[in-house]
Amino acid sequence: MNFTSPEKCLQTIQAGDDIENIRSQNRSKVNDLLNCVPPCSEDVATKMNLRVNVNWGEAAVLAWHGRRQYNNAFLKPSRFFKIALPEAPAEKKGDWERFMTKKANRPLKRSKQFIGLIQAKHAGVVAHGIGAQIWEKKDGWLPKFVAVENLRVPTDTRTDLSNLSWFAIRVPYTPGELADKVFGEHKQKGWNKPAIRKILDESKDRNYEDPQYNWADQPEKMAELYKQNGHFYSGDAVPAINLWHLYFEDQTDGENKGWRLRVLPDQEVKGLAEKTVFLFDDGDTSVADELSEILHIQFGDLSAKPPFLYHSVRSLGFLLMEPCFFTNLMRCRLVQHVFENFNILFRTSDPAGRARAQKIELFDRSFIPDGVGIVPQSERHQIDPNLLNAAMAQLRQLMQEASSSYTQETDSGQRKEQTAYETAVKMNMVNAMLSGLLFHAFVQETFAYREIGRRLCIAKTKDKDAIRFQKECLEYGIPPEFMDVDQWDIEPEVPIGAGNPVVEQAQIKELMQARPLFNPVAQQEILHNFTSIVTDDPKTAERLVPLDTGREISDAFTYAQLSFPVLMMGQPVSPRPELNVTEQIEVYIGMSAGIITRILKNGGNAVEHEIVGLRMVEAQIKQLLGRLAQDPSARQKVKQYEDQITKLFNEVKGFEQRLQEKMKAEENPQMDPKVQAKIAEMMAVAETKNQIDVMKAGREQERDDLEFSLEQGRRDAEVAAEIERENLKAQNAPPPKTPSPAKK
């Protein structure tokens, strides 16, 4: 395709003006229906003699139910999406995923513009089946909403946008917005500044502007102006400068292949002598490498024929158009007929008597002049009580639908108590269509979340939220290689019931009944969801039932739990270096806090083995902190843990002091004098008995010593006598013989 000149670009855009006008008229009818505009114009109502021309708001209620379910599904959860890191180390995977998910969702949840974008996009999906958003800059995660009447897409474009080679967006600028974009601090190269100055000079003296469009060209804008200004076609609108942003794919081979941008004036732009001129030309510089980096469209398509095309989308508002139009018309005719039956009919005998009949006032007592008579009941049209009851019942039904928690099927007004099964069947029938749309919506929204994630990870970005996100992740210890959306798996957060309050209540009720069958982690999650649904406040659920749904029970978590009782018994435990040190520290701190809290509730008096155990746990934590401190990126976390254990184990010092005081008090007790006297008497008796026992023991010892001395003397005498006998034997023995010399 050739987009080298302004003429060719405008010709391409304007080629669809005629057919776009027809589409705009159809969308305008849907908008009027949903905005409670009467079903018939004044001329048509006069021709039909329709004096009750009212839009009873049934379509508006149905559309609001659809918008409410969309908004609940996407805005009610505490986060928009979860991040998974399949390539992260196992010991750090869960911790990093939880941190990145929290930090990536924070700017989205705090952005009023992003919340408004979601609401506008889903309103467009319910009404027309299309909700578009665009990223105008290369960086910056926040997209802008694009109204369907301002988006120009070629015919036969598929809903997956696979064959989309160009699209155009009509952007209404205020003079200040355009001046800031062209001449401001963050101006972009490529703007035609002389032409922009002419446009701004022409609009600088105007504080408001009458609309330059009309019913034939842009019926949707005229209908919206008509609604805003109370049926008045002019007002105090800020002057708008409508420009076309034409995006097209450069399909030539080369390094600069990608999507280009050209900006051209719309036909009603004032201040330009020539209408065919580029107001912006990016030259050979692409604004995006892929279409997904600039445009995302959310579809709510109920069309039945594939392939599904952009301009063949059939929305919920489109399908409600005809049934609701004739329902409104039928109710108008019905109410008018009922009121006509309240009229009193008079019969006059001559035409002149008609004037006398008009002066009759029938209240309490009245006189009817001659020539005038009331048509008796038997001769006139009777009010059908069933018809009246049916009309009143349908009006009551409309009020019930507006206040009901789910859309009910209109009946004849005969109230009948429904069983739980009947209610469930009706609820499923009413919400089956919208539930299918929501399932598809979550799938499509994943791609938008992925683009937001990519923009949060752009290096050297100027977006403040992206800079903060990257800095916090790096300070937490997440390596730079994971600042890449290709390393992520993004999953949207889908609430129970997908945003439908009735389905939500039914599902959580069933889960609560089966809750005992689940494991403890699942039970906690079910209770958290139950609290959130009952209170209709996720923050209350987070406060009452805190839950980290992404947490997994790791080996480090289990090991720390099993080793904690051993440490409390005073036995050392060797840390396992291959397990996550952070998780072990957190488990030890948490379980120690539980023990200390229990002791404080019981008066703050700990026994000796509890203090010894807590000191063993403290030594274990400090040993793990020493290992964690070897990682330079974990210094901030180490400091946080040190502050926690210092504050926590200061309580243990208090336990030790109270235990020492108790032991001293037991050594020097302050007792009652009578008790002390009795104890003293008992101690004196015990002392006397002890002395007697000592004396007895002394006498027995003296006797034993005497007996030992006597026995020892006897033995000494026997030994001396034996020695004397041996000496005598030696003296009386003959001398030994001398041996003879040996013979030679």
What do you see in this structure?
Among the domains are: 500-544; 555-667, no CATH class; 673-698. The chain has 22 helices and 12 strands. The protein has helices spanning 6-14, 17-34, 42-47, 58-75, 90-109, 112-128, 175-183, 193-203, 219-228, 316-340, 353-358, 385-403, 420-456, 464-476, 501-513, 520-535, 538-544, 555-568, 581-601, 608-628, 635-667, 673-731, and strands at 81-84, 130-134, 144-146, 151-152, 166-173, 241-249, 259-265, 280-281, 295-299, 346-348, 372-374, 489-492. The strands form 4 sheets. Strands 4-5-6-7-8 form a 5-stranded antiparallel beta sheet. Helix 18 packs antiparallel against helix 20. Mean pLDDT is 78; it is low at 230-234 and 402-415.
Tag the structure with descriptive keywords.
744 residues; alpha+beta; 5-stranded antiparallel sheet; 12 strands; 7% strand
Topology:
Blueprint (H helix, E strand, L loop, with lengths): L5 H9 L2 H18 L7 H6 L10 H18 L5 E4 L5 H20 L2 H17 L1 E5 L9 E3 L4 E2 L13 E8 L1 H9 L9 H11 L15 H10 L12 E9 L9 E7 L14 E2 L13 E5 L16 H25 L5 E3 L4 H6 L13 E3 L10 H19 L16 H37 L7 H13 L12 E4 L8 H13 L6 H16 L2 H7 L10 H14 L12 H21 L6 H21 L6 H33 L5 H59 L13
Antiparallel strand pairs: 1-12, 2-3, 2-9, 4-5, 5-6, 6-7, 7-8, 10-11
Helix pairs in contact: 2-10, 4-6, 5-14, 7-8, 15-16, 16-17, 18-19, 18-20, 19-20, 19-21, 20-21
Summed over residues and divided by their number, the pLDDT gives a mean of: 78
Helical residues, percent: 40-55%
Strand elements, count: 12
Distance between the first and last residues' Cα:
150 Å
Order the strands across the largest sheet as they lie in space.
4-5-6-7-8
Structural class: alpha+beta
Radius of gyration: 47 Å
Largest sheet: 5 strands, antiparallel
What proportion of the residues form beta strands (DSSP E)? 5-15%
Low-confidence parts = 230-234, 402-415
